[in-house]
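Hmm, how's this folded?
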Amino acid sequence: MKNAYVKLMERSLMLVTALAPKIGYDNAAKVAKTAHARGTTLKEEACGTGLLSHLPSLTRLVAAGQNDTHPG
């Protein structure tokens, strides 16, 4: 079950919001649009453009962003 969850998380284009603060809104939008058009993941597209080469993994960015969804 956990593998299915991880796979769904990796393929979710909604996670692009976790990238926007790090790579900028315009770059995040380009990554999401390209991933959607090619049927690839955000990570594949961001790494392919070099935008994630100096950033922590997308999984860690998303996990860190979960703290932003709770008050206080």
